[in-house]
Amino acid sequence: MPLGYAPKIGDVLAYYGLERQDVAMAIFRYGQDRRVTVTNEPASLGGAKGQNGFQDPGDLVSMAKRLLEGDDNTVPKKYPAFHGTIAKYVKEFITKAQKGADVVIDIDVKDNFREAFKQGRKVLDFLDSYSVPYRMKFSGGSGPHFIIPYEWFPKSLLNGNFAKTHQMVFQTIVSRSRAGNVDGSFTLHGHFYRMPYSLNEHTGLVSLPLTREQYVDFTPSMAEIQNVQIDESWFLEPDETVKEALTEMLRDAHGRKGRKHDSDF
């Protein structure tokens, strides 16, 4: 974490909603169709853990409090972090993945954000070369996350075996970008990852949504809670014509440019 940066319990609770209702609402919205949990031990995540979304944005403060010991001036040993599955669910049947899952590319370089962002730049440049729409954020640790939400897949890729399509998109990006240190566990649809605007358990930094310009100029101090503002544009969805760039990427990568049917993917 940046030198001298150590949020106290009072700072954490203020950030998660006692003062920053906008932060609580952003995390709440992102978790609505996922299984979600709060933890300070991310290594324990997996399986069918978590709950079916959040009931109310105000829940985040009470959930965070359960993992904090001490008064408002205490610096916690670890911070409460909110995680959600990459899978998206139909609310009535949230125990089964009924819709699909986001593609998430996690560059996992420990304690070296410059190297992590250098490797991530390969993913960014590859996706940009096809004009594929994506979101990106800082993990709050050292590396970036690149996200293609399930809803951003063109309709032509949602017919047939989505699990196969998801795997193909993930592997195409990893292999063609030649980025190193990619976490392969994100091919599992039940995999949890830190939600945007959550704190990181170990650093107390925010898992911060980034624009391309912010990515290029990124420093960890940008993710300190006092510097964070909610970027509503990060949540906007591209139109259907823009989404088709993902199909073109797959066609080119797999030598199928001459095929007539997108269902080939």
What's the layout of helices and strands?
Layout: H1 9-18, H2 21-30, E1 35-39, E2 51-52, H3 59-65, E3 81-85, E4 87-88, E5 100-101, E6 103-106, H4 113-129, E7 135-138, E8 144-148, H5 162-177, E9 192-194, E10 209-210, H6 212-216, H7 240-243, H8 245-253
Antiparallel strand pairs: 1-2, 1-3, 3-9, 4-5, 6-8, 7-8, 7-10
Structure characterization notes:
There is one protein chain. The protein has 265 residues and is α+β, with helices and mostly antiparallel strands. It has a single domain (9-264), classed as DNA primase, PRIM domain (Alpha-Beta Complex). 29% of the residues lie in helices and 13% in strands. It is built from 8 helices and 10 strands. The chain has helices at 9-18, 21-30, 59-65, 113-129, 162-177, 212-216, 240-243, 245-253, and strands at residues 35-39, 51-52, 81-85, 87-88, 100-101, 103-106, 135-138, 144-148, 192-194, 209-210. Strands 2-1-3-9 form a 4-stranded antiparallel β-sheet, with no helix packed on it. A 4-stranded antiparallel β-sheet has the order 6-8-7-10. β7 (135-138) and β8 (144-148) form a beta hairpin. The protein is globular. The model is unreliable at 257-263 (pLDDT under 50).
